[in-house]
Amino acid sequence: MTQTLGGFGLYLHWPFCQAKCPYCDFNSHVSANIDQARWQAAYLSELDRAAAETKNRVLETVFFGGGTPSLMDPSLVNAIIERIRQNWPMVNDPEISLEANPTSVEAGRFAGYRDAGVNRISMGIQALNDTDLRRLGRMHSVKDARAAFDTARNLFDRVSFDLIYARQNQTLQDWKAELTEALNMAIDHLSLYQLTIEDGTAFGARHAAGGLKGLPDDDTSADMYLLTQEITADAGLGSYEVSNHAREDAQSRHNLIYWRGGDYIGIGPGAHGRLTLNSQKFATETELSPLGWLLNVEKKGSGETLRDAVPSSEQALEYLMMSLRLSEGTDLIRYKNLGGKLAQNAAQDLVQLGLIEIDETRLRATSQGRPVLNGLLRNLIAE
Amino acid sequence: MTDLDKIRNFSIVAHIDHGKSTLADRLIQETNTVAVRDMKEQLLDSMDIERERGITIKANTVRIDYTADDGQDYVLNLIDTPGHVDFAYEVSRSMRAVEGSLLVVDSTQGVEAQTLANVYHALDADHEIVPVLNKIDLPASDCERVAEQIEDVIGIDASEAIQVSAKTGVGIRETLESIVKHLPAPKGDPDAPLKAMLVDSWYDSYLGVIVLVRVIDGRLKKGERVKFLSNGTVHHVDRIGVFRPAMAEIDSLGPGEIGFLTASIKQVRDTRVGDTITHQKSEVEALPGFKPAQPVVFCGLFPVDAAQFEDMRDSIDKLALNDASFSFEMETSAALGFGFRCGFLGLLHLEVIRDRIEREYDIDLITTAPSVIYDIHMKDGTVEQLHNPADMPDLTLVDHIEEPRIKATILVPDEYLGDVLKLCQDRRGLQLDLTYAGSRAMVVYDLPLNEVVFDFYDRLKSVTKGYASFDYQMIGYREDNLVKMSVLVNDEPVDALSMMVHRERAETRGRAMVEKLKELIPRHMFKIPIQAAIGGKVIARETLSAMRKDVTAKCYGGDATRKKKLLEKQKAGKKKMRQFGKVEIPQQAFINALKMDS
Ligand SMILES: Nc1nc2c(ncn2[C@@H]2O[C@H](COP(=O)(O)OP(=O)(O)OP(=O)(O)O)[C@@H](O)[C@H]2O)c(=O)[nH]1
Ligand SMILES: C[S@@+](CC[C@H](N)C(=O)[O-])C[C@H]1O[C@@H](n2cnc3c(N)ncnc32)[C@H](O)[C@@H]1O
Ligand code: SF4
Ligand SMILES: [Mg+2]
Predict the structure, then answer these.
(1) Per-residue b or e along B259-277, where b marks 16 or more CB atoms closer than 10 Å to that residue's CB
(2) Boundaries of each Radical SAM core domain copy (chain A) (predicted)?
(3) Any idea what the CATH number is for the domain that residue B426 is in?
(4) Residue B341 belongs to what domain range?
């Protein structure tokens, strides 16, 4: 039995949504008729393929991500979880999460998901005012969201939700009020993302054409970020990662696997994986287009399109980049074992500036350092 | 050998883009010098850079045969010349090899600054001038007005100016006839000892140095031994030929003829343009020679990647083989490492050479502020030439500083005159003359060269929407109140940004410079003071605040690969930055920091 540093989880991607949100660059598509039985067969076949090389490893988490997995039939989710349980030994208390959009139709399926074995819901509420929800192209209202959230919390112990802030024309005060409201709703986990304008999205195009006015400038978004850190910490939901907040022991164990440099299987169109096989770390990817993936699985028996050995120098970089997102920071011994180096002078300067902390075994970004994490990384990685 | 009275030699001169090279195309085509299938536009512009920019950089010679209306066969040697002011030297030396000029004027534009400058060169060389009004196919063409302008502004008779479209071919036959009728045949004595002028030379990787010659007296034959008077070297002529425009070998060249010789010469530097060539055993009086082209603009060129220094040395050596007007010496800079201080004929010349190093040899370069040569008069009476502001000697030893000045001639439609005068005034110009020709003004200014080398031409074009033309010549050195301004980034002096400025302009330049740098240097993790100083005194200061926000909001399993690649790319991008103390400055900043908005 292999024990991998950072844990072992499984990510499953459902690539469909009811509508494409204008800010979203995820692998999500709108499709009128989806043959869920056909998808089920493909997912199960891929689960078997993955199990063939990781059979005896103990699975800790499963994550249904999207797209909008709350469009999946509960029976499909059930079949998948069943197959997972057959294929791998699991820990006693596995975390099985599913991303859900908060419309009434979807809320109707929550009970089915619970019965299938899902024990955590992550809900994309995004904003707590209707004007902004419309601007974000969302299909739900604040009322819908609250109702769906109540349904979820009645069914699940663990319910988290996502908000997007630093939106058009949003002031620091607006956000403070909205966040306070959100904290009143929240149970033990929240994801708070600053709006990112991504290339290849509708917002990206509008922004490039000079549209999408009223986005906060760097200084304002820095202030918003720092304010968010303060308010959430006061409410006992301090951040454990750049954009993720939780009470003690309520962190997303699945996502921690990514940030701690663990192993994860990626199933479904465009899913990425990291797997240690015979002491070598591999990066895997699958066909991005839903139909292409389906056909590959059906015809070739595999959706995988890439399998690269990750050299240790790249693993080191990846580990630093991911782990520094966490408030617990980077395990320097592990980083060094991978051959990772720190630019010593730069590191000393960053300590002086109060942006990082270093002790014998760990490197952490301070609360001042976290908003400029990319800058820290550029400075810290040695030639 | 051709009878002297059947030869006509001429250069084609004009303001940039008035259609010289296109006219040359038509003359070549009309006389069937080149097979139809080998014909292409601006055939003579054969260098990549010429074709890409659509301009002529190097003068080109072609020999064409023409049967005139009088039934006689003539040999015409034409030289197509560049129009850009940086290469004016090519024009004036080409003119020394011929007896007449076709003065091409774009009939939609009229007389421009280089039209004038070329006329003066032509008159200096005692040329007959045949005016040609080009581009008559365009609706904006106005031959009557332009002919009038030629008479008014230049003072030559334009009543017989030929109306031509080098594009459609109208007027080409008339041009050829006019060349035969109006341009003088060369003079010379076939029986006198050989006397030939070395007009130009360039390097060819197969044949070695190719020497363009104009025979004055006597005959030059293949297999003979010839002597270059300037250095007394003797060479065995292994090839003689003419350009049609491809090289065609012939046995001999007689008086009045223009052609080439090769003689196993290794380096362009072993030949001196303007030199006199004779037979080994003959004694002739030397021709007056040409003044060598002097580089006037200097800058440092450094490889972005220090490991490419040797490659860069190679590339510079190779380019210099073929371009004697470009000078270079090794330079070291605390910040930029090893590189070269290079001298150029002007900014376009600088750009062309830099482009060629970057592209043909695949080396990324950092270009430092262009500068001119200052004469530093020391208290002990000696004079030092300062090519690089970083080398400014201790001020207590300096008596005074002199800078090169130019006489600039600008032609501009009068609606833009005010802006042009303001620009010249801002650049410390002294007005010498202001006259009108119709609705165009001709302004002559005495300007410091250093105010012009960098972006004067760009500014002139932008304030006049491209309607002004500009020409200049050096007029000598003059004392002024000049100081060295240094730039400090995070309290460290950055040599490559230091520059000589007039004391009274120092504050303005300094402020503009630090403001620009504030935009050009990316935010760092800490705040960075940027200062301009004269000696120990800070004259302008800006603070670049620390980076506040740069973090990826979402980063999950599917994002790891992409973000990691981005980081690796940024790490590689750091190579395009230069480290000054703790600050990284992008290479582009060195040149862009100098661009002034007014
Ligand atoms: N319509 C029209 N365009 C012309 C004519 N002659 C030249 N051109 C165009 O004018 C532009 C400049 O022509 P060139 O022959 O390269 O001009 P040049 O004087 O040799 O330019 P430099 O060598 O850069 O000084 C080109 O785009 C030509 O196609 C003409 O008679 N009619
Ligand atoms: C994979 S998405 C999908 C979840 C689900 N389909 C939904 O939209 O609610 C996960 C979360 O990423 C966040 N997100 C997506 N695009 C974003 C962007 N451009 N900027 C900031 N956050 C974004 C949203 O909060 C979203 O809930
Ligand atoms: S944000 Fe969620 S619902 Fe919207 S398109 Fe993206 S994945 Fe689909
Ligand atoms: Mg030309």
Answers:
(1) bbbbbebeebeebbbbbbb
(2) 2-238
(3) 3.30.70.240
(4) 295-367
